[in-house]
Amino acid sequence: MKTKFLALMICIFSLTSCEKQLDINADPFLPQEGPPHLYLPQVFYAMAEGAMFDIRFIGRYTQQWQSTVANENYDRHGRRPLNGGLAASQTYRNHYWSIGSNLNQIESQSVKRGFGAYKGICNIIRAYSWLISTSQFGEMPLKQAWDNTRTKFDYDSQKDIYAEVQKLCDAGIADLSSPQGAIDPNFASGELLFGGDLSKWIKFAYAIKARAANHYSNKTSYSPDKVIEWVDKSFASNADDAEVKFSTSTTVLSDFFSFLGPARANFGAMRQGKTLVGMMNGTFYPQNDPRLTQYFNPSTTGSVGSLEAGKGLLAGQIIPTMYGKWIFQNNTPYPIFTYAEMQFVKAEAAFKKGDKNTAQIAFFNAVKANMSKAGVTNALADDYLAKALPKSGAELDIKNIMTQKYIALFGHPEVWSDLRRYNYDANIFMGYTPPSTLAIENNGKLVQRCLPPSFSEEDWNTDAFRANGGYDIDYHTKPLWAFGSLE
Q1: d(CA 478, CA 155)
Q2: pLDDT reported for residue 356
Q3: Among candidates 123, 155, 135, 156, which has minimal Cα distance to 54?
Q4: Whole-angstrom Cα distance, residue 201 to residue 204?
C-alpha cells in the first residue's frame, strides 16, 4: 500500500513540476512572438522549395529530364502510391504550412506593431502560392483553409481558387500603392525577394495575374487584352525577376545551398531529356541553340547526350550530370517568375488575338532575355534570332512561341501547365512524344495532376479526399478545370 501511495505522489509531483516548468513559456523576459521581418526569409525559401522539390517528378512528366533507371514510374507518367508520403507534393504542404501559417503570423504581428506594407505583400505571396498549388493539384480546401477549429476541410473548385488569386493580387496592389501604417525599419533586411522595393512587388502581382489569366486560354472567357495589359504592368526586364537566392559561401552547410545543386545531391540520377535537347541541337531548328552548352555539360566528344522517357541510361552511354550548369549549381538563384516568361505570355496572347506584330516583338524579347540570363552573348543571341527563328509576325506560329517558352522555362513546373493546356501536342511542342509505355494505373491516359500529401489528405482528411476522387486509381489523370474549355 505504501508503495502504491508513493508511486501516486511521484506522479502528482511530476505533473506539478511539469506545470511549473511550462510556466517559463510566459516569462516576460523571453519573446513569445517574433517581429514580422524574421518570418519572411523562411516564406521566400518555401516559395521556391516546393517547386524545387516537386520538379524532380514533374520534370520527368515534361521530359526536360529523365531518370537513368529504365521504366521509372514518373518517366511513364505514373504517380506516387497511395499512402506514399510527400513525393511530388511539397508545394501543397508548403502552401498551407511553411507559407500560409507564417503569413498568418506576419499579418498578425505587423498589425500589432502598426507596420504597413506587410499586408499587401502577404496577399501577393498567398496569391502566388494558390496559383502554383492549384496548377499542380487541382481542387483544394480554400474557404476553410487555416480554420483552426476544424480537423477536416472540404475541397473547393479551381474556379473559386483562381478568382481568389485575382482578388488577392488586387488587394495587394491596392495596399502597396498606398501603404497604411509605418514602414518597419527592419523590413528591407528580411525582404529578400526584391530588397524592400514595393514597386517590384506590384509588378510581381501583375505577373501573377497575367499567368493566371493565361491559364484560361481554352475558355471563351479568355481575354488576350487583359493578359497583355497585366503583362505590360509586370516585369520590364530581367532586373525585375522574382528569384530566391542562396548563400554564396563555400563553407556553410548544404541547407544554405539550392536544392538543385550538387551539395544537396538530388539530381544525380537525372539527365537531360531527349525532347529538350532535340529542341536545341539543330533537330528542329537550322542551327544549334547557344543555350545548349549553357544548360548542359557536353560529353568528351563535345556533343550533348540525352535520355528518352522510360528508357534509362543505355549500356555504354555516358552522359555527364546536369550539375554545374544553369540552375543546377549550389548558389544559383531559383527563378519563380521572370520577365522572359511574361514576354512569352504576351506573345501567346497577342498571337491568339491576331496581333502578330506585337506577338513577334514579345517573342524576340522573351528569347533574348532568357539567353542573356543563361549567359549567352548578345552577338550569339542575335545570330540565333536572325537565322533560326521566324523573322516576322507573318512567319510566327504558336509552335515556335510554346517551344521556345519550353526551353526558356527549363527547370520550372510552369512548363507542365503549358503542356496540359495544349494536351501534350507534339505539333505545339516540337518533339514531345508521350512515353511508349504508360504506368499501369494511368489506364492509357496522360498525367494531369499530382496527389496531395498522404499524411494530411489520406490520413486526416479522408472523407473530402475520397469525395474529390482522390482514391481513384487514375485520379492523377483527371484533367484540371482551369486548362479545359468548361467555364
Answers
A1: 15
A2: 97
A3: 135
A4: 5
pLDDT tens readout for residues 104-145: 999 999 999 999 899 999 999 999 999 999 999 999 999 999
The runs of H, that is alpha helices, within 30-99 are: 40-61, 90-94
- Residue 161's SS3 state is helix
Residue range 36-63+73-249+336-481, CATH number: 1.25.40.390
65 in Cβ contact with 273 (< 8 Å): yes
Task: List the grid coordinates of 1.
Answer: 500500500
Q: Which three cell numbers stand for residue 143?
A: 474557404
What gap in Å lies between CA 321 and CA 266, rounded to an integer?
Answer: 11
Contacts 24+ apart (CB under 8 A), 444-449: 445/474, 445/477, 446/77, 446/477, 447/61, 447/77, 447/78, 447/79, 447/476, 447/477, 448/420, 448/476, 448/477, 448/478, 448/479, 448/480, 449/136, 449/137, 449/138, 449/475, 449/476, 449/478, 449/480
What is the distance, to the nearest Å, from the Cα of residue 312 to the centroid of all Cα atoms in its chain? Answer: 26
Residues 6+ apart with CB under 8 A from 432: 63, 275, 419, 424, 425, 426
The pLDDT of residue 406 is: 98
Cβ contact 309:277 at 8 Å: no
> Rounded to 10 degrees, what is the CA torsion of 308, 313, 319, 321?
90
Cα separation, 458 vs 464, whole angstroms: 9
According to the model, what pLDDT value does residue 250 have?
63
